Amino acid sequence: MSNANTTQPTNVKSSTTANTAGQSQTPIAEKLKDSLHNTVDKFADSAESAEKAIRSGATHSAETLTEKQQQIQASWEASSIRKYAIENPVATAGMVFLAGALFGKIIRR
């Protein structure tokens, strides 16, 4: 049973292509798309500047940390405590053991 009034669908793509050549069929969607693109572009610019600031701060922090480490190392090298520990290792180990035992007693109470 074939219905003589049924028609086959026409090629929708070709008919809409002809209409979009002159004017957009979805002006609201186009405005939304443009607005979203602008928002994403602004967000990308903000992210870029934030990344640059973070990288700059991290680089500065790393340089400062390296300088501090060098200062502490130089201070330790010249320290009288280091000299005593090298010259008297057994006495140093005994003092460290006693300090740890005393600290343990205090913590338990």
Could you characterize the architecture of this molecule?
This protein is mainly alpha-helical. It folds into two domains: 26-78; 79-109, no CATH class. Helices cover 81% and strands 0% of the residues. The protein has four helices and no strands. The termini are far apart. Mean pLDDT is 84; it is low at 11-20.
Q: Layout of helices and strands, plus pairs?
A:
Blueprint: H1 12-20, H2 27-77, H3 80-87, H4 89-108
Summary, kept brief:
By secondary structure, this protein is mainly α. Helices cover 81% and strands 0% of the residues.
The chain-level mean pLDDT equals 84
The helix-and-strand class reads mainly alpha
Helix content: over 70%
The count of strands amounts to 0
Low-confidence stretches: 11-20
Gross morphology: elongated
Number of domains: 2
Largest sheet: none
Radius of gyration: 38 Å
Question: Per DSSP, what share of the residues sits in E-state strands of 2 or more residues?
Answer: under 5%
| Separate helix tally | 4
Distance between the termini: 98 Å
Order of helical and strand elements: HHHH
Primary descriptors:
109 residues; mainly alpha; 2 domains; 4 helices; elongated
